[in-house]
């Protein structure tokens, strides 16, 4: 649940999601659910020439299971808070 | 699952309800094998199993594209990579020309053989690596 909560704090920010099929999509994070499915708005594919069919897509839903990386904006991670939350979760409190 | 939720967070939405807003709209679905399906999303569940109405597969080869009609499709969720709302005003990919289903199938086949041929050529040259 920790990363679900964490991703929820990132809603509205610009992120780049890289998929396991090497497609990388940039957009503002619209929502995330407990499977870490991600919805992006105002999307732009990083290598547009290679994926012409993505031109007509502006908002998209990405299944959590196909995500390889989520690239965050610089300063998107409050490392101390995340550290703290991780330890709290490990203690089960 | 939701009972151990940290304090101060709103209750969890029901599992996999993220697609509610996409219902009854034209969607482009990318499958794990790279196929692209377009259709109207009629139903879904928490696994992202999908029901598409008036679905067709869109094949793009070079500068050409073609649509192959499929009808009503149920897609098993594990095969879904991405689902995107298609802007109806720019559904047709810019600077691509439409060809018939049989033509695009032929073009796809030709492309496949070409890729395969390239692969076998490279394999035949493998011995050069050993020499060096």
From TrEMBL, chain A:
Pfam families to which the protein is assigned, alphabetical: LSM (PF01423)
Domain of life (superkingdom): Eukaryota
Sm domain sequence ranges: 2-76
Keywords recorded for this protein, A-Z: mRNA processing, mRNA splicing, Nucleus, Ribonucleoprotein, RNA-binding, Spliceosome
SUPFAM superfamilies listed in its UniProt record: Sm-like ribonucleoproteins
Family listed: Belongs to the snRNP Sm proteins family.
Protein name: Sm-like protein LSM2
A Gene Ontology term for the protein's cellular component: U6 snRNP
Native source organism of the sequence: Cymbomonas tetramitiformis
Subcellular location: Nucleus
Purpose of the protein: Component of LSM protein complexes, which are involved in RNA processing.
GO biological process: mRNA splicing, via spliceosome
TrEMBL record, chain B:
The UniProt record lists the keyword RNA-binding: yes
Sm domain span: 14-89
Alphabetical keyword list: Cytoplasm, mRNA processing, Ribonucleoprotein, RNA-binding
GO process annotations (BP): cold acclimation; deadenylation-dependent decapping of nuclear-transcribed mRNA; hyperosmotic salinity response; mRNA processing
Main localisation: cytoplasm
Subcellular location: Cytoplasm; Cytoplasm, P-body
Pfam families attached to this UniProt entry: LSM (PF01423)
Highest taxon listed in the record's lineage: Eukaryota
Gene3D superfamilies recorded: 2.30.30.100
Recorded GO CC terms: Lsm1-7-Pat1 complex; P-body; ribonucleoprotein complex
Hydrolase in keyword set: no
Entry function: Component of the cytoplasmic LSM1-LSM7 complex which is involved in mRNA degradation by promoting decapping and leading to accurate 5'-3' mRNA decay. LSM1A and LSM1B are essential for the formation of the cytoplasmic LSM1-LSM7 complex which regulates developmental gene expression by the decapping of specific development-related transcripts. Required for P-body formation during heat stress.
Subunit annotation: Component of the heptameric LSM1-LSM7 complex that forms a seven-membered ring structure with a donut shape.
Record-given protein name: U6 snRNA-associated Sm-like protein LSm1
Organism of provenance: Cymbomonas tetramitiformis
Protein's gene: LSM1
